[in-house]
Description:
Residues 39-129, 139-231 form the Ig-like domain. Keywords: Cell membrane, Disulfide bond, Glycoprotein, Immunoglobulin domain, Membrane, Receptor, Signal, Transmembrane, Transmembrane helix. This is Ig-like domain-containing protein. It is built from two helices and 18 strands. The protein is mainly beta. It folds into two domains: 2-133, Immunoglobulins (Immunoglobulin-like, Sandwich), CATH 2.60.40; 140-231, Immunoglobulins (Immunoglobulin-like, Sandwich). The strands form five sheets. It has a six-stranded mixed sheet with strand order 2-11-10-5-6-7, with helices on one face. A four-stranded antiparallel sheet has the order 12-13-16-15, with no helix packed on it. A hairpin with a 7-residue loop joins strand 5 and strand 6. It is rod-shaped and about 85 Å long. It starts with a helix and ends with a helix.
Amino acid sequence: xxxxxxxxxxxxxxxxxxxxxxxxxxxxxxxxxxxxxxxxxxxxxxxxxxxxxxxxxxxxxxxxxxxxxxxxxxxxxxxxxxxxxxxxxxxxxxxxxxxxxxxxxxxxxxxxxxxxxxxxxxxxxxxxxxxxxxxxxxxxxxxxxxxxxxxxxxxxxxxxxxxxxxxxxxxxxxxxxxxxxxxxxxxxxxxxxxxxxxxxxxxxxxxxxxxxxxxxxxxxxxxxxxxxxxxxxxxxxxxxxxxxxxxxxxxxxxxxxxx
Length: 259
């Protein structure tokens, strides 16, 4: 407990010094914006630069902007705070690289991060923005009714894709590639982990002349991430077949009449 109180006092001192210092011997060079991918590791790049001799890093801390408790702190080479096992320094022990590693990135990791560093020659801090994108699942198509579709009856097609972010869109295409998206209705459902599920439906009059339809899932930038195709199963038409035995008897009768 005492060590943690000492750590907080050091952090407060660092914040004060960073705010008051105008002539810095030490500065942080951080990438301003990082685009992470859901489920993958995200690297928030940050390094220490010195205008003089090589410096010794005394403490590194990483925070979520607006939070009172740090996510990760290293003091004199030892970890004194780690809020989540997914958080760590990318290159522990480095005298320059203080990049922050977020493993198995979640949507809730998106936000602003602040790095603070204290060295034997000065202190500095910098803010990095982490944006998280998530790829949609491959779309799944279905229809109501599912089978035995009757010619010229109303049918509804469905196309579902889950787990993406930011909000994307669903496009519909007919057998000749005609875009029918304007006639479709797409709903967006937010998941508990702040991703998005897309559900789209398209209602039409069934025609066996145009039995194939396709849906395409696009991300927020309009890039296709997946597609699916559905071939409508129409009810077979009943056809009256000629009985071959009756046909043969009729031929014989005709021959007798002619003779």
